[in-house]
Design goal:
Blueprint lengths: L1 H12 L2 E4 L1 H16 L11 E5 L26 H8 L3 E6 L33 H8 L5 E5 L6 H7 L2 E4 L20 E5 L2 H11 L17 H8 L8 E5 L9 H16 L3 E5 L7 H16 L20 H12 L2 H14 L5 H22 L4 E5 L15 H5 L6 H6 L2 E9 L6 E8 L4 H11 L1
Parallel strand pairs: 2-3, 2-4, 7-8, 7-9
Antiparallel strand pairs: 1-3, 4-6, 5-6, 5-10, 9-11, 10-11
The structure holds glutamine.
Glutamine binds next to loops.
Length: about 450
């Protein structure tokens, strides 16, 4: 049924870069056979899922939304992919994304934009717009995203779906094509909080193949989602971050947020205002740290090891082939990031740019620590605006970066954060998201609040 649905609507939505019809049907048949043979299967066995094209899938194309990896067939599965297969999930295919996960609208994909199912002339968020649009268009009931600065939560917010960035290190990055290694985190996308929690427990947990994987049990997110569903938040302290309002926020988004806070109070939560002054510097710090790491990570695309090769290597030097390949393989936003990152890391500028950004990162972590000493979770709008029209911000990178204003602090500090649908804006009738943030390894706290609110 989901493959049929993809056939019907994906021509217009373009959530998928690759649909693996045969692989999906074979995986589904295997679950049927296992059940017929009396085998024990997990709670998500047989459930279809779409995978952001940044996670490797053995023998199935993985492009990261880039021309650079066109035609590349990974020789191995990412740990997330492997865990999905072992749990019997049926992988439908790979979803569209901004090239190398750099963007906030999915317009930076080398394969054309994804459209928002709520309004096909608008963006579905980014960088994981394909994974969110696939849920909103009922092409898949579950999907996987990755969140470096908001790429799971922001698409979730603008498509009316649930998106979770787990605690950094809570889900393995093995086989996740690196953008900014100290920020990248894979996580579950779903249409309900409980669905996201079930998927979280399948993909989460320690992996010796990832040196930053946390060696601790997966937080009990399914139990928390079930507990929250009884709608009682008494005893829960919720902090409203005062920095996330003012200029750049649509009045409709702010009104939706006020209504959400009122509802949390009604459910029994105690709500207080919390100030996190360093959050004002999160965006500039992120746009130095993420490009710096990207400039280093993307050095591996050298025309020798992966992907395309441009230029005749019998007549040209290795340097020329490398330059021609990177010229043709990378799009404008990726080149911009490589240049910013290379500059910020260069001797003479390192302390002023990268060093300062790292100090801001520490201050942001301290703001979170101080806040979580008095509250259980923090809340804010997920995005300052609802989905904007396709093309509106493509010529203005600074305007595009503003879409990450509320989501970036959680990546810089490494703690958990999620977006849950918060109704439609009374301004334009488009979905709004409520962001809930929790301390590292306390992911279950935000699931409880989200399930009660949902
Ligand atoms: N929009 C942010 C960026 O362009 C975040 C991307 C992400 O989370 N992958 O870097």
């Amino acid at each position: 049924a989901h493959l049929d649905r993809i056939g019907e609507v994906d021509g217009a939505v373009h959530a998928f870069l690759h649909v693996d019809t045969e692989g999906a049907l074979a995986a589904a048949r295997k679950v049927d056979d296992d059940i017929a043979a009396g085998a024990h299967v997990g709670p998500l066995a047989g459930v279809p899922i779409a995978l952001k094209d940044v996670l490797t899938t053995e023998g199935v194309p993985t492009t990261v939304g880039s021309k650079m990896l066109e035609g590349w067939l990974p020789p191995y599965d990412a740990t997330v992919t492997r865990r999905l297969k072992e749990a019997g999930l049926v992988i439908l295919g790979k979803t569209n994304m901004d090239e190398f996960a750099m963007g906030s609208s999915t317009e930076n994909s080398a394969y054309g934009p994804t459209r928002n199912p709520w309004d096909l002339d608008r963006i579905p968020g980014g960088s994981g717009g394909g994974s969110a649009a696939a849920l909103a268009a009922f092409e898949a009931p579950l999907s996987i995203g990755t969140d470096t600065g908001g790429s799971i939560r922001q698409p979730g917010a603008v498509t009316g779906t649930v998106g979770v960035k787990p605690t950094y290190g809570g889900v393995s990055r093995y086989g996740l094509v690196a953008f900014s290694s100290s920020l990248d985190q894979a996580g579950p996308c779903a249409r309900t909080v409980l669905d996201a929690a079930l998927l979280h427990e399948v993909i989460g947990g320690y992996d010796p193949m990832d040196s930053t994987s946390i060696d601790a049990p997966v937080p009990p997110v399914v139990a928390a989602a079930r507990e929250g569903a009884n709608g009682d938040l008494s005893g829960v302290r919720v902090g409203v971050v005062t920095q996330f309002s003012g200029d750049g926020y649509q009045p409709g988004v702010l009104r939706s947020f006020e209504a959400a806070v009122a509802q949390l109070k009604q459910l029994g939560a105690e709500v207080v205002e919390v100030s996190c002054p360093s959050f004002d510097y999160a965006l500039p710090a992120y746009y130095l740290i993420a490009p710096s790491e990207a400039s280093s990570n993307l050095a591996r695309f050298d025309a020798m090891r992966y992907g395309i090769r441009v230029g005749d290597d019998s007549t040209r030097s290795a340097e020329e082939v490398m330059a021609l390949t990177r010229e043709a393989g990378f799009g404008p936003e990726v080149k911009r990031r490589i240049m910013i990152g290379t500059y910020a890391l260069s001797s003479g500028y390192y302390d002023a740019y990268y060093g300062s950004a790292q100090k801001v990162r520490t201050l942001i972590s301290r703001d979170f620590e101080a806040a979580f000493a008095t509250v259980d979770v923090l809340v804010s709008p997920t995005t300052p605006t609802t989905a904007f029209p396709i093309g509106e911000r493509t010529g203005d990178p600074m305007a595009m970066y503003q879409a990450d204003l509320c989501t970036i602090p959680a990546n810089l500090a490494g703690n958990a954060a999620m977006s849950v649908p918060s109704g439609l804006s009374d301004e334009d009738g488009l979905p709004v998201g409520l962001q809930i943030m929790a301390p590292a390894l306390q992911d279950h706290r935000m699931y409880r609040v989200a399930a009660a609110y949902e």
